[in-house]
């Protein structure tokens, strides 16, 4: 088989660009590769595997013959076009928040809940890619939760510009350049000056509880992916002047006491996670090291001193927002979809996939 | 009275420079103003109130005739010279960590525990200025703690370059400039690349519990200043690419349920605190707004969703590390010392001082 025909909606954006790079790097086998965008971006070109691919316009027959449609566009674009792609017979993997909380839409982190794809096997459907902060927090938390259920979680983020798109990354660079050269800069993408500054995540705030949308996504998506809405979760989401990797301080309380050594041992075996916890050298996860890496880096693993019961652990994680936080997770989902269709594990090269193999091998 | 004779040790550093600016701006009345440094910096000059002041060398008679000695130098300099200044009859206000935890040394945030100065009244002694992250967290927490005791506190920091001194601020600027111009930069002040990066606070780590010194300072100093070592505290301290204001996410559990409106109302009346919590506009405390400001900015005040009991609040604060986090707090302590000596509240111009007036008026 030549592999599925793949469409990418929003290929010229920050996530779309990473998606193309990952498809090439991982050798994701595909038939036709069709790039699509709304009229505004259609007609421009994008480089892929040494060739120039033209971006076509989203339109009536845009998804004809497509097996997998990767959406890296806004929620509005997803709402308008994902149902059309499904009607044309495609499996949609959507990076926006539009469908994440829909009860019949699987919300997937392959290391966590690949089995949630079972109920859509072989069907044209929408599969949602979670929020970046959610993925980066829960990929390392899952193996701990499986061993000793997490009952309470406090997430405090240090989020990179990339979460607001390529234009926000440019704004961080340009506004910092202006600051250093003593020039005025008026922000046009983000609502606040970004150079050497940080600010509360710029999503709408629920006037009832004071939490912003990003924080509520972390809470609700974790509930859905872990399949446990009784977990008590709080989040504070903050944008920091970093380009493309998110950092998060995670304080989590387990059902039973859990020593830091046990957390370390669980994470050593965890797919998609790399421990960076070199106490003697003072070397821990940093955005600069996480950028361009598939794995979530985890460190500063220690007992939380505010809980004498020994049930609470504090740790610090970093993950590339554009890779595991978005494009890589989407391609991993696509690989699972291909696996389901073929019955053969698709991509064997990574720790992630080989660790997923046991649950996949149950399939015919 | 012409005011006390004042010595400043380390006047050419980041905190020393702010100290001089604050003395001038607040009109802190003084007699002689003597600048001192170790041999390395002695002989250079510093601008003050339109004049050029020469920095003298720390030596045998350096503190003769000095009433108040403000130390903005290392712990080693404080350990070597503060006892000599006291022997010469001075009150030392020390910005280093050298004496903070000594049982007989008052550790003072004027808005919190000015009364801890009572036992050293009129004596040559050492008074310690707390760690910047501690001051910025506890100035807004104190009025809440007084109304409804805080039993548990989780601090997560976003700390500016200034906490590591003027050289670290330059390194942030220079390394960012190099990054933007595609040039190599080898860090010489901080242990990790700083441009568009963040990293765990670069202080030594206790191999027993995994906490770094900065985190343990926040914990132990809060216990001492609040006079309550039973408070359960945890901290994660992180250096972010911001120049001079620290931000902190504070999650605190009170003895009894406390609605966010009550916290807001307590902070509206709190000295040294300004509420910035404009939910409709998405406008909250930011380092850029806190820089150069005396007040700690507090916002994102909301119920912590991970504690259904309603006893836990989450909020976000920013404060200028060089001002309230260091130099301003030191000058406020000096003002209290002068007040004690004269019996008359020294500085009446600020909200801080007028709010402190009731406790001061008990004195003869």
Whole-Å distance between the termini of chain A?
Answer: 18 Å
Going by CATH, the architecture of the largest domain in chain A would be 2-Layer Sandwich
Biggest sheet strand order of chain A reads 3-4-2-1-5-6-7
| SSE series of chain A | EHEEEEHEHEHEHEHEEEHEHEEHH
Output the radius of gyration of chain A: 20 Å
Shape label of chain A: globular
Q: What's the CATH H-level superfamily name of the largest domain in chain A?
A: Dihydrodipicolinate Reductase, domain 2
**Class based on secondary structure composition and strand pairing of chain A:** alpha/beta
Low-confidence stretches of chain A: 346-364
Proportion of beta-strand residues of chain A: 15-25%
| Greatest contact between two chains | A-B, 59 and 59 residues
Major β-sheet annotation of chain A: 7 strands, mixed
Helical residues, percent of chain A = 25-40%
What number is the mean pLDDT of chain A? 92
- CATH secondary-structure class of the largest domain in chain A: Alpha Beta
Describe the structure.
Two copies of one chain form a homodimer. Chain A is an alpha/beta fold. Chain A has helices at residues 14-25, 75-87, 110-113, 132-147, 166-180, 213-226, 260-268, 287-290, 323-342, 351-360, and strands spanning 6-9, 33-37, 45-48, 51-57, 68-71, 91-94, 126-128, 150-158, 199-200, 232-236, 238-239, 245-254, 273-275, 296-303, 312-320. In chain A, strands 3-4-2-1-5-6-7 form a seven-stranded mixed beta sheet, with helices on both faces. In chain A, strands 10-8-12-15-14-13 form a six-stranded mixed beta sheet. Residues 346-364 of chain A have low confidence and may be disordered. Helices cover 32% and strands 22% of the residues of chain A. Chains A and B meet through strand 8, helix 5, strand 9, strand 10 and strand 12 of A and strand 8, helix 5, strand 9, strand 10 and strand 12 of B.
């Amino acid at each position: 088989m030549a592999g599925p025909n793949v469409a990418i909606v929003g290929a010229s954006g920050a996530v779309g660009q990473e998606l193309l790079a990952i498809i090439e790097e991982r050798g994701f086998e595909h038939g036709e590769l069709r790039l699509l965008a709304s009229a505004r971006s259609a007609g421009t070109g994008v480089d892929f595997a040494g060739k120039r691919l033209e971006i076509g316009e989203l339109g009536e027959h845009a998804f004809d013959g497509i097996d997998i449609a990767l959406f890296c566009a806004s929620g509005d674009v997803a709402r308008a076009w994902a149902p059309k792609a499904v009607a044309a017979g495609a499996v949609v993997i959507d990076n926006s928040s539009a469908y994440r909380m829909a009860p019949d839409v699987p919300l997937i982190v392959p290391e966590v809940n690949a089995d949630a794809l079972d109920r859509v096997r072989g069907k044209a459907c929408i599969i949602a890619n979670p929020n970046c902060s959610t993925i980066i927090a829960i990929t390392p938390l899952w193996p701990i939760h499986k061993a000793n259920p997490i009952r309470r979680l406090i997430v405090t983020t240090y989020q990179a510009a990339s979460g607001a798109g390529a234009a926000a990354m440019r704004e961080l660079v340009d506004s910092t350049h202006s600051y250093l050269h003593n020039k005025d800069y008026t922000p046009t993408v983000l609502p606040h000056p970004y150079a050497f500054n940080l600010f509360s995540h710029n999503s709408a705030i629920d006037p009832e509880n004071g939490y912003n949308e990003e924080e509520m996504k972390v809470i609700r998506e974790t509930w859905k992916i872990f399949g446990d809405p009784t977990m008590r979760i709080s989040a504070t989401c903050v944008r920091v002047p970093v380009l493309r990797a998110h950092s998060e301080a995670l304080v989590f309380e387990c059902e039973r006491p859990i020593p830091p050594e046990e957390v370390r041992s669980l994470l050593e075996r965890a797919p998609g996670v790399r421990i960076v916890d070199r106490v003697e050298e003072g070397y821990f996860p940093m955005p600069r090291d996480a950028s361009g890496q598939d794995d979530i880096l985890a460190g500063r693993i220690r007992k939380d001193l505010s809980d004498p019961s020994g049930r609470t652990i504090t740790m610090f994680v970093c993950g590339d927002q554009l890779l595991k936080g978005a494009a890589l997770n989407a391609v991993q989902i696509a690989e699972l979809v291909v696996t389901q269709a073929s019955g053969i594990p698709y991509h064997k090269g990574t720790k992630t996939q080989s660790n997923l193999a046991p649950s996949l091998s149950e399939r015919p």
